[in-house]
Amino acid sequence: MNLRVASHVHSTWSYDGHWGLDQIARAFAARRYNVVLMTEHDVGFTEERRRAHREACRSAGTEHILFIPGIEYGDPSNTVHTLVWGDVPFLGAGRETQYVLEQATERGGVCVLAHPSRRAAWKVFQPDWLNYLAGIEVWNRKTDGWSPSRDGIRVVSGTPVPPVVGLDFHCAKQFFPLVVRLPLETQSDEAAILDALRRRSYSCQAWGRDLKWFTSGPALSASGLLEAARRMAARTVHRAFPGPLRKASQGV
Predict the structure, then answer these.
(1) Helix (H), strand (E) at residue 165
(2) What is the pLDDT of residues 128-143, one digit of tens each?
(3) Residue among 67, 69, 8 at smallest CA distance from 188
(4) Contact 115/149 with Cβ under 8 angstroms?
C-alpha cells in the first residue's frame, strides 16, 4: 500500500487561508488522500499557537485523514520559504534559511524547500542547504500552475535531493492532481511518515503519472503551453468578473 499525501496545505490558521481544518479533512478525503501535510505561515505564530495548532490538527483528523502539522518559514526578505514538519519548537518568523534548516534538523524536523520560482528564490539557493533538505518543490500549484517549475527542475537536477510536488493550498482553486506517495501501510503513525520523508523514501505523481514524465521533453513543453493559456484566460475572466469568481474559488 502507498499512502496518498497532499503536501503544502494552509488552513485558516494561516493569515491568508480560507478553509478550516474540518473542511479540509472532508474535501481531501473525498479526493482519496490519506495524509495532509499542513504548512501554516510563520507570520502571527508563537510557540503557544504552534502547540494549539498541533492539537487542533489531532482533533480534526479522522479515520480517513491524518493531519501532520507544520510551519512554512520565510526568510527576512520573504524570498526563500522552507516547509518544516515535526514537533519542532517555533523558530520565529522571518529567520534566515540556514538557521531554520539547522535548528529544525537538529530537533528532528523534516525540511523541504518551497516554490523556488516564487520571487526567483532559486537565484539565492545555497548548495549547503542540500545537506538538510528532504526535497525541493519542483511543482507548486499556486506558484507554478499547471506546469512544473523549470527553475526548480534546474535546482534539483544532479543533486541527491528528490523533487516534490505541493499544492500550496489556500482555497479551492489550488485543488490539482498532485500527490506524494509514501510506501507505508498505515496513515496513523506520524513518526513513520516523517521518517519516510526524512529518508527521501517517497515518489511523486501528477495526473496519476510519475513526476518524471512531466519534467522533461514534450510533456514539459505541452504543460508549459497549457499554463500560459490558463494564465491568459484567468486574467481575462477575472478582469470581467472579479468579485464572484474570487469568492467561488475560495469555496465561500
Answers:
(1) strand 163-166
(2) 999 999 999 999 999 9
(3) 67
(4) yes
C-alpha cell at 219: 510533456
Residue that the C-alpha cell 501535510 belongs to: 37
**CA R_g for the chain:** 17
For residues 3 and 64, what is the distance between their CA atoms, to the nearest angstrom? 11
Share of the chain above pLDDT 90, in %: 90
* Range list of H helices, 132-201: 141-144, 150-156, 190-198
The DSSP 8-state label assigned to residue 98 in this structure reads: H
Q: What is the DSSP letter of 21?
A: H
**Total domain count for the chain?**
1
CATH (domain of 112): 3.20.20.140
Torsion region of 90: left, alpha or beta (phi above 0 gives left; psi -120 to 50 gives alpha): beta
The residues, any chain, with a CB within 8 Å of residue 250's CB and separated by 6 or more, are 18, 171, 172, 173
Q: How confident is the model at residue 234 (pLDDT cuts 50, 70, 90)?
A: confident
8's grid cell: 503544502
66 bridge partner residues:
35
Its domain, for residue 226, covers 3-249
Residue range 180-214, pLDDT digits in tens:
999 998 888 999 999 999 999 999 999 999 999 99
Grid coordinates given for 84: 518544516
Residue 213 has what DSSP assignment? Answer: G
